[in-house]
Amino acid sequence: MARETVDILISGGGLAGLISAAVFGHAGWSVLLVDPAPPVTEGDAEGSDLRSTAFLRPARDLMAGIGLWDALAPHATPLDVLEAVDSTGWPPEVRERRAFRASDLGPDPFGWNLMNWLTRREVLRVLAEAPRVELAYGTAFQGMLTRTGEAIVTLSGGRRVSARLVIGADGRNSAVRQAAGIGADTRRYGQKALAFTVTHPVPHENVSTEIYNQGGAFTMVPLPDQNGRPASAIVWMNPGPKVLALAGMEQAGFEAEATERSCHLFGPLTLESARNVWPVITQTAERLTAERTALVAEAAHVLPPIGAQGLNTSLHDVASLLALACDAPDDPGAAPVLAAYARSRERDIAARAAVIDLFNRVCRSGAAPVQAIRRTGLKAIYDLAPVRRRVMKAGLGGA
Ligand SMILES: Cc1cc2nc3c(=O)[nH]c(=O)nc-3n(C[C@H](O)[C@H](O)[C@H](O)COP(=O)(O)OP(=O)(O)OC[C@H]3O[C@@H](n4cnc5c(N)ncnc54)[C@H](O)[C@@H]3O)c2cc1C
After folding, report:
1. Do you find a cis peptide bond into 336, omega within 30 degrees of 0?
2. Which of 22, 36, 280, 285 has minimal Cβ neighbours within 10 Å of its Cβ?
């Protein structure tokens, strides 16, 4: 089969791969995106991604820069306040509540929340009009040979493509990472996360609420009203067997358990979706680059779902790689571009992975001394205004 040529081959059509295709295509390079799995773009379809993403300001700015945010903004719910609630025991008893306000930092909200299946639908709609982007769903990255000037990629079906840059956006078990011989350091917690949506009688008023208790965080993130009722996306972390039991529970029992775990803050919760189960790990790639190859997003780092860091950190990767590649438009995969990309991202990724790992360990612990640290830490961060502002800025992707 004859060999084709593209500027950039992206392996993986999850949200990170799709948004990468949009920004690199918009910058003028020819892009081929491959993914063996067809995209699911309806909330009630089999295999739908029922997680939501609270896009923080840097992620919004990246997408706004190419007009993509115009397609997403009408569906987004702003997050004006992040409320941290410390609870203990069962039924959970609230011990501390602290509200972090975006208005402390400026006029913008902390972020804007969208369901992942809906973001995927809208990005695909925009990509359908992108002249230099080809989406090859049903096609997998299988292997590559690299040399100084190109990567020769073999795809399922026998297609062979020469690319100046291969972007591995193919998730936590990245085939590109493996083909490049890059290892990964994985920490497991025996935890899983349930993702689902609910409606509730008490309005959320654009407050995102993270409720800590033994087992892990229970996070409610505001969505637009559904069927005339306030709605939220929930991520509920627990030890793996407990999550599997919750996922299999009949609806009324599950709703009662979730309402109890929410400390009744929004009244009785009504389940409005299926329940997705996700493993919770921290994983970092040993390197971000190899010859003609850059890893981004979950191919490079997986974080526990706390503080809306996962995809936001991923889009930080994409923004950095894009900015550096734009300085070398004739060869976006040249060695100096890749070396600069690795330097620009390694420290931030390592720092976020360390902080979220520690935070998750403290959040899930049932040990009394650790619970006391959690409670004291929450008060200390909140009650000292300069510390509070620094933590909020760092969480938003700032220094
Ligand atoms: C419960 C939960 C809640 C979360 N909430 C948030 C949040 O609020 N904010 C936030 O920023 N982040 C959040 N995250 C993290 C975020 O959802 C993920 O980081 C993100 O969805 C992963 O995107 P990705 O594109 O890197 O990987 P994936 O979505 O896993 O996409 C990888 C793609 O690669 C494809 N692929 C696999 N093998 C191949 C191959 N051989 N060739 C080509 N393609 C291949 C797969 O089919 C897949 O489509 C959350 C995570 C979890 C688990």
Report:
1. no
2. 36
Q: Considering its fold, how many domains does the chain have in total? A: 2
Same domain, 234 and 205: yes
Ligand 1: nearest atom to the Cα of 16: 25
Number of alpha helices (DSSP H) and beta strands (DSSP E) in the chain: 11, 20
Both 132 and 158 in one domain: the answer is yes
Interval 278-322: pLDDT, tens: 999 999 999 999 999 999 999 999 998 887 678 999 999 999 999
User: Which backbone phi and psi does 348 adopt, to 5 degrees?
Assistant: -65, -45
Q: Is the CB of 195 under 6 A from ligand 1?
A: yes
Determine the residue of 303, 314, 321, 396 to mutate for testing ligand 1's pocket, defined as the one with the most ligand atoms within 8 A of the Cβ atom: 314
110 and 122, same domain (yes or no): no
pTM of the shown model: 0.93
DSSP 294-313: EE-GGGTEE--SSTT-HHHH
* Domain identity same for 59 and 28: yes
**The ligand 1 atom nearest the CA atom of 15:** 25
Residues 209 and 347 in one domain: no
pLDDT for the residue 64 = 94
Contact 304 CB / ligand 1 (< 6 Å):
no
Query: Residue 267: how many CB atoms within 10 A of its CB?
Result: 14
253: tokens are 């029992």
Ligand 1 near 43 CB (within 6 A): no
Whether 86 lines ligand 1, by a CB cut-off of 6 Å, is no
H-run or E-run covering 338: helix 335-364
